[in-house]
UniProtKB/TrEMBL annotation:
UniProt feature, compositional bias: Basic and acidic residues: 10-22
Name used for this protein in its record: Uncharacterized protein
Species this chain originates from: Lentinus brumalis
Ranges of Low complexity composition bias in the record: 35-44
Region (Disordered): 1-44
Source superkingdom: Eukaryota
């Protein structure tokens, strides 16, 4: 009996190599990155810390100066309309049917004419708010009050203030000025120090019930609000009277006020308090 136990000899080269299964922990794809690691938290939305005063330094339509301006400009339209209607020869301009306005309000109530700019707006704003104190306001304040007044009146053609801004004789120049202010943050101004373009700071926060994308879209909205209120009666044959303003053109154009010292109408705690144009 042999003392050596013989084991079967195998040829490793001829035997199949078992397939090695990958480690399950290594085959899994890495987890997607979390939102917090890829995107920064959005900036806090501006809020209104007092009526009309936004936390980002802009003015909203809730500001008392804007609301008073819209209220008084509506009254000015009504007073001028009544004065014009008091002359018998102007009766065809004041025929109304149902809820629709007269031809005078549709065509003559606008406070801006073709070619008018910010100086005309300053005249109207300072005239209608003259009792709030002496002083000449900065152009930024004038722009904010006028544009917010126009935007806040836009959805309400049943009120006289709508026709002061968006009447047939005033809508295009008003739209030009509104568009300039609303699109201001999209514009760039040259920085002489760094020689690069910087976005211009916004002046206003648009009313929530109005969407102004550009002038074309804005005028489309104006026509939509206005068309259902335009007169259905035949257009009158305008006859000029000898007295000034008998044809309605004098309307509610405000007289210029004398130069005044700064009053701090919007004090330092409110937007634009000490900002100069």
């Amino acid at each position: 009996m042999s003392l050596f136990i013989q084991h079967p000899i195998s040829d490793a080269r001829s035997e199949p190599v078992p397939e090695r299964k990958p480690n399950s922990s290594q085959s899994r794809p890495p987890p997607p990155p979390t939102t917090s690691s890829t995107t920064a938290s959005p900036a806090a939305a501006p809020y209104e810390y007092s009526p009309g005063c936004m936390s980002d330094g802009t003015m909203s339509a809730n500001h008392w100066a804007v609301q008073l301006f819209v209220k008084r400009i509506g009254h000015a339209v009504e007073e001028a309309e009544a004065e014009h209607a008091a002359q018998p020869e102007n009766a065809p301009w004041h025929v109304m049917t149902g809820h629709r306005v007269s031809w005078w309000r549709a065509e003559k109530a606008g406070i801006l004419q073709a070619g008018d700019g910010w100086m005309a707006c300053r005249t109207h704003v300072e005239h209608l708010l003259a009792d709030l104190g002496p002083g000449e306001w900065s152009l930024d304040i004038v722009k904010a009050i006028f544009v917010l007044g126009a935007l806040s009146a836009l959805p309400f053609p049943g009120y006289a203030a709508f026709w002061a801004f968006w009447g047939m004789n005033s809508a295009v120049p008003t739209a030009d000025l509104v568009n300039e202010v609303v699109t201001r943050p999209r514009q760039a101004s040259a920085d002489p120090t760094h020689r690069r373009a910087e976005p211009k700071p916004a002046l206003i926060t648009e009313p929530r019930n109005v969407s102004w994308i550009d002038k074309d879209y804005g005028m489309w909205a104006v026509r939509g609000y206005r068309d259902g209120w335009l007169p259905m009666v035949p257009h009158p044959n305008e006859r000029r009277a000898k007295t000034q303003g008998a044809d309605g053109d004098a309307g509610i154009m405000c007289g210029r006020t004398r130069a005044r010292e700064p009053s701090g109408l919007l004090d330092a705690g409110a937007p634009f308090g000490n900002r100069q144009a």
